[in-house]
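So, can you check what follows?
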Amino acid sequence: MNISDLKKQLKLPLIAAPLFIISNPNLVIEQCKAGVIGSFPALNARPKELLDDWLYEIKDSLDSYNKSNPDKLAAPFAINHIVHKTNDRIEHDLELTVKHKVPVVITSLGARPEVYDAVHSYGGIVLHDIINNFFAKKAIEKGADGLVAVAAGAGGHAGSLSPFALMQEIREWFKGPIALSGSISSGHGVLSSLAVGADFAYIGSAFIATKEANASEGYKEAITKYSSDEIVYTDLVTGVKGNYLKPSLAAAGFDPENLPKSDPSKMDFSSKDGMDKKKAWKDIWGCGQGIGAVKDVLTCDELVSKILSEYIEAKNRLSSLS
């Protein structure tokens, strides 16, 4: 599949970001049926044998939907692989990705040619997420097809660069597909991401506050209640800097204004320790600075329809100014 064919299958140029713990088959299926690329982290399927079942469920559900809706086909789906050296599941999970020929693969925390080669063997597309121009160049040099540019304000693991600076630097040398992440929660944000040179907007936090998401009601309510003022950028949770809701940190016993620093060398995504952190941090809520645009808990279809309406409104406004 090439990038042009991929775009033609979407109602909106939007990729729903893979959300740790939160993204499950039902959420992915509903995202795709709504017309955007749905995704999930492979590590969300525990034990690892469950991943095969999840991939069958997603593929079978989307195939059934497409047969019943030939004039309104679902968007493709994506899987996210953490390729950090401590992820001892990567070979297993990649083998299942190849078996099921997952159309889009998003890789994080390391660029590995053997992963890209495996996905390319069946015609899949690989997007690697990066936080700066240096890592962008490394990913493309090693064989990634495109990038997820994670700018300042993104939920969870996030960069610190302005999307304007990051996109400008990457577009000086790279003409391939880019999804832009960072504070995007509305159709206006989607159009803005295209204006700065991206092919897709990459939205995560808004999908936490959907009825299909595997998040607590308290988490969903917090997304609709708080704004960027209640978000802190810290490496405490995983050893990699990211954005988290201050009230959830306070509820877990931390002082959001005086957080201890973490040691990145202790970051661990192994089968034994990686998901133990799920228990330890299940009440630490990651989200991006764009949550001020999220006012209600909606279904995926309702959310995508809302974003599409805003996107059209933003395009019309620009047309009226020209």
DSSP finds 13 helices and eleven strands in the chain. The longest strand covers residues 77-82. The mean pLDDT is 92. Residues 300-321 form the longest helix (22 residues).
